[in-house]
User: Fold these one by one.
Assistant:
Number 1:
Amino acid sequence: MHVVHIALQAISGAAMTWPLTFLLPFANKGGILRRVLSHLIVVGVIAFLWNVFRMATFDAMITAPDIWQDFGGWYFTALLIFGLWAALYYIVQAYTAVAAERKQAQMERLRRVEAENLSREAQMKMLRYQLNPHFLFNTLNSISALVKTQRSDQARTMISQLSHFLRLSLENDEWVDMSLADELEALKLYLDIEKVRYADRLTTEFDVDEAILDAQIPALILQPLFENALKYAVAGRVKGGTIRLIGRKEKDHVFLSVADTGKQNSLSQDDITKLEKGVGLQNIEGRIQAHYGLSGRVEYQLSDIGGLEINLSFPYMPVSISSQK
């Protein structure tokens, strides 16, 4: 009978916690004093009812008429049990609220990151699309010049090379990033176009470490640098000029340097300070900033071959790893 009575105590006690679930939220309103008193009253009443029930059932089952003399001891146990249950209720409520807030904050962070990524991707695409008409305009002017000077064979070759380059660009129109190896392939197609125009006046030097050929970089980021060097270091010189590309891996960053031999007169540091940046250079700075933030840099300095040197630096990330992300 003692075992049966213990089972009845457990069942009835669990049943009495059900009304507490509704009463405790009402008791948790108002000032601190009111909340304390409300909780004491709610827990005291529920504990009192449960205590009367379990003592009455024990008296009926075990026949212990003197049990009511120990009401205070039984009631203290009931108060302790329901007081701990109420504390556990608020602990669970607090944990649930904190977990919900953390989940909400995480969702907000994810939405913010996604929005920033979409914004950055849109900005990079916009900047990239800005290059296409700029490059096309310059190339068509070159073809027009060849036609005017009756160099039709060279004009046809240049048109063919332009078609090949544009086909590559359009086939990969959705690319935001590409490997350095693919970037160099597109760059060489561009240089093939320009070599039709400049012939022996254009000399290029490539010194790129194979260890960074799989590095992810913004698509068509090098072409504007070479276009800028062609405009100022080759087109303006009777004997032409040289454009040099160096690519290295420095710790966890990719370092790319494009240098040229400059104009007829060597550049000075004052020229670098007062450098007027055209569409191409502004485009590159905007793309590097949008893509890498503070981790990417575009710097200008005098080159050791007499002209301008433009250095790009950004975190190294292989295409295979970034595509998995």
Number 2:
Amino acid sequence: MSEVVAQRPFDGVIFLPGLLCDQKLFAPQLAALEGIYPTEAPNLGAYDTFEAMSAAVLEQTQFDRFALAGLSMGGALAMNMARWVPERVERLAILDANPGADDEKRRANRRRQIEDAHRIGVGELTRQELAKLYLAPANQTPAMIDTAVAMAEEHGVAVYERQQNALMSRASVREHLPLYKGNTLVLCGGLDILCLPEWHREMADLIPNASLKIIDGAGHLAPIEAPNEVNSAVLEWLGRERL
């Protein structure tokens, strides 16, 4: 009797990091998936539009069909990629992200932040302002803040400006979300003040095959604030295929 070889439904998992973030943002998830699925966490620092970011991800990936997870900026990019190349995005995970476009108030704040980053440095901007927005109050520990600062400093001001420009120029994807039919995880920290839980409830209602997970006590950087809860949600989203 011949051995039946199980087939993975997709080739691997791509994690798209947020503004000024890198693979350290997803370190707990990358570790949890080791031996289960190949993973990638591309660097999105060289591009100033979502179109250019998407083209780079698709050019650089080794995967034909993939599960795509993104946080914040990466989540917004993931939603766009699910719209642009749905035949390649077999599953979608939207983490602490905004499906809408910036209004003028938010664009003005981004421009002010860019000016501050040039003036005091992106690491100091992260320490003084951004970390307090990223992390729930109980998670604003020296170690967590240092992680956010380290990621920012590794990117630098030029990357920050490019990524902010990409965010300011993006369009809303709300009207496109009902068209995506893949298995979708919508997840956020219950204390996220940048990408509100109510937005995630809306997205989960719009996407036909979505499940919603709101993590109590976590803020905007849920993957490192609540790694066990996020790992469990990600494994469930992937169907826990241990092949």
Number 3:
Amino acid sequence: MDSKEISQIVVRAADSKRAHDIVVLDMQKVSLMADYFVIADANSDRQVKAIADEVIDQVEAEDVNVYSVSGKNSGRWILIDLGDVVVHIFQKEVRDFYNLEKLWSDAPLVNIDSWVEV
């Protein structure tokens, strides 16, 4: 399974738990860190944790390795390292503060319209 397919699983899992403003950045030409960043937010630490749990469950069901999970205790910013895909799930105000989309503004956005239910 390639990194774009993994990103698609992540997006669908996050969307199923009602994550807000899901964005996928194509990092392939701007960073060696990962191929894709998936960024989403939620209104509470409980929802952030629920989204992270669903992402982990869905990728593990597809035999994708979860290398590490950081921030799960606080639920303000959970980072899930899937190797070539890095998932950031924030509480809204934390996402606004760190503004990863602006920090990585050189990374093109991936069109995910066909990945989520409208």
Number 4:
Amino acid sequence: MTKVITRFAPSPTGVLHIGSVRTALYSWLYARQNNGKFILRIEDTDKERSKKEFEDNIIDGLNWLGLTHDEFFRQSDRSVFYKEKIIELIAKGAVYVSKEEPKEPGGRAEVIRFKNPNRVVTFEDVVRGDISFDTTELGDFVIAKDFDTPLYHFAVVVDDFEMGVTHVIRGDDAISNTPRQILIQEALGAPRPIYTHLPMILAPDKSKLSKRHGALAVTEYHEEGYLPEAILNFVALMGWNPGNDQEIISLEEMVKLFTLPKVQKSAAVFNIDKLKWLNKHYMKLLSADRAGEEILTRFPPMLQTKAHSDVKVFEKVVPVILDHISVFGEVRALAEAGEYGYFFEDPAYAPEKLLWKDEPEPMLAAEKLQKILALIVDIDNAFFTPETIKTAIWDYATEAGRGSVLWPMRYALSGREKSPDPFMLANILGKEATLRRITHAIELLRA
């Protein structure tokens, strides 16, 4: 059997998007599964629109995702091969130089056209089955502006032929290109690769996928704090499934399970909530050090300094933050809104904020905080855990009213209406800071 060779062939006229990632992933998976070769080919024949910044974005995005290539080509480096094939086809009578009437003064006076045999072309698509086109309507189509400037349809066929590509996996928007390419293949004597055209990815409202619906550049997902494992898992299941209800699937598992015939015919729907759910799953698999690094880099500078100066508190804060976010990028906005500052410095607040809604009497709240102090003051530092603190306080809170006991405790520790429960807070802050903050709250209430 011929060695499997696939290729991902983006044009550097824009950044790497989710739809392109799926094409790259499926091509990469099929090559890896069959011990084959995965080629990255930058198709920059459109010199006016192709930009180095887009090429860099594509390469950086694939590297971040771990979709490494075995060979790399750039069409702009291969003009000599295209010219040779044009000359070869002219000698065969398959293409010809066509004198053209310039569309505007100074315009091109000739192009190179393919001599269309005007027949029906049928090819088998792994997803859609047999597809037929009557090529007559294409006429004698242009394959190059001149001997040194091939167009996409010609360059892609020459490249696939020269590189031995056996499987062409691409979006179904390229189906209409296939008849032209097959005619060129036949004229060159090139073998026909196996085609797999992937269904579109639609927005949740079934419209064309756009940035408004979450279809960002892969580098933007990276900057927002998504993990590559989540992106790959999400993209893999948009148009394919392993044949069961499995939703968490690693890249290694994909290599074992992926099959082209299981690619779905219907369009996939982009679901940002599903992506966030997957990302949260993979975030929780990170080591504490890695998660801490991701969080710390998104703290404002002043908060970073405080976290560095109180490492023990920061280490306890990391799992709490992970529980309340789906993407690391959320940390920045939450930190700037003051969600994490109270972990590292005593909060400032008005004393009336300590009062439970059903008990507006400051002295009563002070008495309850005083009782909490008495219940926890003798807990050894080594056993100052959420469970031990809760055990010490819970019976009293149940007897006296949980809200009226636990609300002032939590507010004294955080200075915020929304925060982790008071037992978790006390554990994170440590015994010394907990006693200090509760004592301060009592002083405010009694002032």
